[in-house]
Amino acid sequence: MKRLLGVAVLAGALILTFTSLQSSKPGWWERLWYPLSYKQIVRGHARNYQLDPALLAAVIYQESKFKADAKSSSGAIGLMQLVPDTAKGIALHTGGSQFRVEDLYDPEINVRYGAWYLRHLLRKYGNEQDALAAYNAGQDNVDRWRDAGEGIQFAETRAYVTRVEQLKRIYRRAYGSELGA
Question: Is 72 in a helix, a strand, or coil?
Fold first, then answer.
């Protein structure tokens, strides 16, 4: 009985400590689980392309967990998991004269291209959900769904959009003042 009482007191103390920490320093728990690497790059390109920095951070986390050397089985590369063909087109639109696939491993270049692309999708579709769906499933799929008056048809893409929106809220809560969000 004494042992059970001791465990209950310890559990209560831990809950009280956790609650106190959460109220005195909101976001500390999220910071533990959702790091923000390349903060200056994220802030800078969010500002340059008029994006919510928490959204940009959320896309990066979802795409690569902030691993600059990430490469998917489909060939997408870097922090924002850009496909080389898409990145080559972005490079031309943004004034790049020479495009090299290995540049996509450079966080500065990758986030610049990804931020440009996300801004392009937001302008094209006029809403965050469709822009995120296009980032994940491609513009052709989203165009087809919209033309048919349908919502997102891929379960994976619906989950992606929901997860990025959730991550955006987490990043805003955890890093809002640092991101300028």
Answer: coil
